[in-house]
Each structure stands twice: as structure tokens, then as C-alpha cells.
Amino acid sequence: MAISFDKALGDLPGHLSLYGERSSLLAANIANADTPGFKASDIDFRSVLAKAGGEKMVMKTTHANHLGGGSAVSGADLMYRIPTQPSVDGNTVDTQVEQAEFAENAVRYQSTLTFLSGKFKGLKLAIKGE
Questions:
Q1: I want to staple 19 with a disulfide (CB 3.0 to 4.6 A). Which of 36, 97, 109, 120 is the partner?
Q2: What is the pLDDT of residues 53-65, one digit of tens each?
Q3: Whether the predicted model's global pTM rises above the 0.70 cut
Q4: DSSP β-bridge partners for residue 79
Q5: Number of domains observed in the structure of the chain
Q6: How far apart are the C-alpha atoms of 58 and 61, rounded to whole Å?
Q7: Closest Cα partner for 40 from 107, 106, 108, 87?
């Protein structure tokens, strides 16, 4: 009987990809905390997963000859933060909020890696027949 990695791993690879993309967005927000007019953005993880509807998330490419990569999050999935205290220069980054979101996202990314590692260990044991 053949082992289906898609069934065995479930949605974890897609979650890992989204957490990675969110890390990039949050890091960009933190890096641009002093950039006039910069608008802090984020993704709504739940809505992206709901749009996927349990189907495998497909990586976007810009050319037919490119390998799978790019972003699983479209521009429509980006949301902008509403600042608690707007700055005079139009920047909406609240460094403390961004750092807290980044830390939470990092913990979720690491826990997803741990779950994924457990799945691979289980598959390895199944292949060995243990």
C-alpha cells in the first residue's frame, strides 16, 4: 500500500508556509517603523485558510517555467493595521504590537515544525514496520 504524503501531513505544510510569509510581513513592518507614510500590514490567517477550503494550497508562479514558489497569500489577503495612536508622518507601525505579533508567530511556526517532525517520525516508523 502506497503512503500518501498529502494525507499523512495534512495541512501542516500550508500552515508552515503561511507562518513564514507572515514573519516576512511582520519583519518588514518592524524594519519600516521610522519610514514616513509606511502602512503596517498583516494577513488574517483564518481567512486565508478558509479560502483554501481544506484544499491543498498552491504556490503562485509568475512564469510557466518557474518552479513552485512565490506567495500563497494574494494582495487581497493583506490587511492594514489601524493604529491606536496615529503618527504625524502617517506611519502606522506600532513597534510593540509588531514585536508581540512576531513573537507569537514565531512560536506558532516552531510548534508547526514540531508537529511536522512528529508526522515524519511516525511515517519513518511505519516504513520500518515498527
A1: 109
A2: 555 445 455 556 5
A3: yes
A4: 42
A5: 1
A6: 9
A7: 87
Residue 88, classed as helix, strand or coil, is coil
Residues of the chain with pLDDT under 70: 1-3, 52-76
- From 97, 96, 99, 92, select the one nearest 38 (Cα to Cα): 92
Give the Cα separation of 6 and 16 in Å (integer): 14
For residue 27, the enclosing domain spans: 5-128
The answer to whether residues 77 and 44 touch, using CB atoms and an 8 Å cutoff, is yes
Give the H or E element holding residue 42. Answer: strand 41-43
Task: Check: CB of residue 62 under 8 Å from CB of residue 70.
Answer: yes
Show the DSSP H helices in the chain as ranges.
5-9, 12-31, 45-52, 95-128
Burial label for 48, CB within 10 Å (0-12, 13-18, 19+), is: buried
C-alpha cell at 35: 519610514
Residues constituting the chain: 130
Place of cell 495534512: 10
